[in-house]
Amino acid sequence: MSDKGDQIVEGGTPSTREKPHSFNLFVAVSGIISITLLIWRLTLNPESETVRLIDMFDLGICVIFFCDFLYNFYHAKKKIKYLLTWGPVDLLASVPASQFATTTIVHTLHWPHLFRIIQGVRAIKSLHAIINAVRLDRRSVIIITGFLIAEVTIVGCCFAVLQFESQDPNANLTNASDVLWWSVVTMSTVGYGDFYPVTVGGRFMAALLMFVGIVLFAMMAGVFADLLRSAASEVARKENKK
């Protein structure tokens, strides 16, 4: 695996001379969020709705990691070397370490701690990639800050709403799955109205989540534009070599 923010060259070995792509920075920030949630999870009651919500976020982040593994494999010049070096770490990091997703696969093999260690290694590499990206390209500071604020706000709002609403007997947002569904609907500004906060704190978080959702969609559009621009540049470079 290349450090996030580095281009993959010989079999997954990073080249520190290349400027990082926005997708790499997004994955790096997600890695930091992931290990933070997993550490917090260890201090909570395993049966609580907060843990269930952490598990759902962990699953979503692992999907991002798996996409990153495919991205790294596709761009590695020596794919066999990548699969024999950082490839397995990238792939195993995309396996959810939470109990609800690994009960039948990993927990039965008594390996849950192995996957937590691997995700810890992934988080350390993500932190290194962020530091490296800041050194190489000052523009990365803005992108990293934007992704970090957006992800922390989204995750924080979900947990805050779950906490606020669980204290009100008239609330309908009292479990993790409903909160997650409501957050997606709120960020997209669709507003089906099937779930809604009734507490003052929950409504404040809803307003904040709507604002962040609009900003996040704009940022993701920029990420895709960056990926398309990079792909177009690569195609043009290959055409020029012919």
Summarize this structure as a short list of keywords or feature phrases.
9 helices, 70% helix, Four Helix Bundle (Hemerythrin (Met), subunit A), disordered N terminus, Helix Hairpins, 2 strands, two-stranded antiparallel sheet, 242 residues, single chain, mainly alpha, 2 domains, 2% strand
Task: Describe the protein in words.
- There is one protein chain.
- The protein is mainly α.
- It folds into 2 domains: 1-137, Up-down Bundle (Four Helix Bundle (Hemerythrin (Met), subunit A)), CATH 1.20.120; 148-242, Helix Hairpins (Orthogonal Bundle), CATH 1.10.287.
- It contains 9 helices and 2 strands, in the order E-E-H-H-H-H-H-H-H-H-H.
- Strands 1-2 form a two-stranded antiparallel sheet.
- Helix 1 packs parallel to helix 7 (139-165) and helix 2 (49-75) runs antiparallel to helix 7.
- The longest helix is centred in the last third of the chain and has 42 residues, at 200-241.
- The chain is globular, with a radius of gyration of 19 Å.
- The model is unreliable at 1-17 and 99-110 (pLDDT under 50).
